[in-house]
Amino acid sequence: MLRRQNRLRREFVYKKSIEQRDQQIAERKQKLRETLAAGGSSQLPDAMKRQALRLHRHLDWDGAGGEDADPDLEQSSQDDEYRWAGVEDPKLVLTTSRDPSSKLKQFAKELRFLFPNCQRVNRGNYQTADLVKACKANAVTDLLLVSETRGVPDGLIVSHLPFGPTAFFSLHNVLMRHDMPGVGHQPQELPQLVMHGFGSNLAQRLASILKHLFPVPKPDSRRVCSFTIVQHDYVSFRQYSYKTVSGQPELTEHGPRMELQLYRIVQGPLDEVDTAETEFVARPYMNTAKKRRLMAAAEEAAA
């Protein structure tokens, strides 16, 4: 069993490296096409000038047929990560950090009802590697781990199994259901998802990680979970249900409320974060950190 898992992991990592190499070559060719269309080679970086002739020989053979005709048809290792999405419902396991406070236990309980097909387990003294191993053995698709600081929930880890990715979030302005007056009963329908403001490639990657935590809902579902990109690249989460009153939709918020801030994505499961490749890491202490909008599209960030 371990040999098979190691072999599959090596194949997955090798495919990612080949994909990254091909993507770099495609970007160089696209840059060369744009330079030739502009009628000069002065725009080429010095490192590309030495490769320009070799790349130019292959440009005539790079057509727009086959899979190149539609970028949505291109296969990548990210497709392999969620290849069963929509075919099989996700199976989630939720746990906490060690020695959780009563507030963190309550927050984990609310998250357990937020995600359909989610099971909450007590952490106890289990190591991270033991949790991941048990999840893999039981065909769990995602492992969620919430943490706290002085009784305030402030961390969430989402690890997709068996090969990753693993996303790390900091939580802000957490308001739980029992602190919200008049929230009503927690709806049990499969929720419709609303993703707003996810413009950049990083934001699309984040949206892919979040949306695959939920099964495919029925078209007439009246439960809605919204993820909205707000200022400073925070993701605002809200949960609603709606009904029609006198021909007008009426929203009822059910909670919990929270803002998520992504600070790291690792291309591997939770037990391999120290050795797996880092796909993204936030750099909040750079001089340009206040100006950058990583989640917005290029035209929005430039505005």
Report on the architecture of this protein.
- One of its GO terms (cellular component) is nucleoplasm.
- One of its GO terms (biological process) is rRNA processing.
- GO terms for molecular function: rRNA primary transcript binding; snoRNA binding.
- The structure is a single chain.
- The chain is of the alpha+beta class.
- The protein folds into two domains: 1-75, no CATH class; 92-291, Rossmann fold.
- It contains eight helices and eleven strands.
- The protein has helices spanning 2-38, 46-49, 52-59, 77-81, 102-114, 128-137, 201-211, 298-302, and strands at residues 92-96, 118-120, 142-149, 152-160, 166-175, 192-196, 223-230, 234-245, 248-253, 257-266, 278-281.
- Strands 1, 2, 3, 4, 5, 6, 7, 8, 9, 10 and 11 form an eleven-stranded mixed sheet that branches.
- Strand 6, helix 7 (201-211) and strand 7 form a beta-alpha-beta unit.
- Helix 1 packs across helix 3.
- The longest helix is centred in the N-terminal third of the chain and has 37 residues, at 2-38.
- It is globular and about 70 Å long.
- The chain starts with a helix and ends with a helix.
- The model is unreliable at 64-75 (pLDDT under 50).
In short:
The protein has 2 domains: 75 residues, no CATH class; 200 residues, Brix domain (Rossmann fold), CATH 3.40.50.
